[in-house]
């Protein structure tokens, strides 16, 4: 994979973005099984053979796309203002609102993100679940490094509070999917504000609530 990935990474940026955007649209419009690598190649303006020169198979392409998009969104969201925020909950709201703007600016990114969060196909299910779990600890260490954790009560673990917010978001998404409702980022961010206020009352020392 490394040799193929290195070959892909060495491409001019416009070529890499063309392939990534073609894959995003195809995986966003379709579930993993139905997503056609031939359609991805056609949208990217390359042959299917060349696509598989860069990526061994569809699974490798999908996982590489996930990493590419995660890095791309992080570069946009984590701006200069991000690290100036020292409040745990304010930082989460800022990141959510920034991600909402990114999702609105890139067609198919929201659909792809939801499908990736709930991987159903056996080829990617275990790999995606494992990858997502592996991201939490390093992201917590990196993105919350300037947060004032002294505002938390002594008996409250900030990492556990983050887990609670992830569980709430997961429940929200499950409910929307079960009811077959389109995902509304503005509504989800509004809900997240309520969750943050609720957890802030529980987690912070009285003088910081």
From TrEMBL:
This is TetR/AcrR family transcriptional regulator. The keyword DNA-binding applies. Keywords: DNA-binding. InterPro entries: Homeodomain-like_sf (IPR009057), HTH-type_TetR-like_transc_reg (IPR050109), HTH_TetR (IPR001647), Tet_transcr_reg_TetR-rel_C_sf (IPR036271). It comes from Rubneribacter badeniensis. Gene3D superfamilies: Homeodomain-like, Tetracycline Repressor, domain 2. Residues 36-55 bind DNA. It comes from the Bacteria. Residues 13-73 form the HTH tetR-type domain. One of its GO terms (molecular function) is transcription cis-regulatory region binding. Pfam families: TetR_N. SUPFAM superfamilies: Homeodomain-like (SSF46689), Tetracyclin repressor-like, C-terminal domain (SSF48498).
């Amino acid at each position: 994979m490394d040799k193929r990935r290195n070959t892909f990474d060495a491409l001019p940026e416009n070529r890499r973005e063309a392939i990534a955007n073609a894959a995003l649209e195809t995986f966003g419009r379709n579930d993993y099984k139905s997503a056609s690598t031939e359609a991805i190649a056609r949208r990217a303006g390359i042959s299917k053979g060349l696509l598989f020169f860069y990526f061994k198979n569809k699974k490798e392409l999908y996982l590489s796309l996930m990493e590419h998009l995660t890095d791309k969104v992080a570069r946009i969201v984590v701006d200069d203002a991000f690290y100036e925020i020292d409040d745990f909950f304010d930082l989460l709201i800022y990141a959510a609102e920034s991600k909402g703007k990114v999702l609105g600016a890139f067609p198919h990114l929201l659909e792809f993100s939801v499908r990736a969060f709930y991987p159903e196909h056996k080829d990617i299910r275990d790999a995606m679940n494992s990858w997502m779990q592996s991201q939490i600890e390093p992201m917590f260490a990196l993105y919350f490094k300037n947060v004032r954790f002294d505002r938390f009560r002594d008996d409250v673990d900030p990492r556990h509070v983050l887990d609670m917010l992830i569980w709430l978001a997961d429940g929200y998404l499950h409910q929307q999917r079960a009811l077959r409702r389109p995902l509304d980022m503005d509504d989800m961010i509004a809900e997240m504000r309520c969750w943050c206020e609720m957890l802030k009352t529980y987690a912070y020392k009285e003088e910081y609530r």
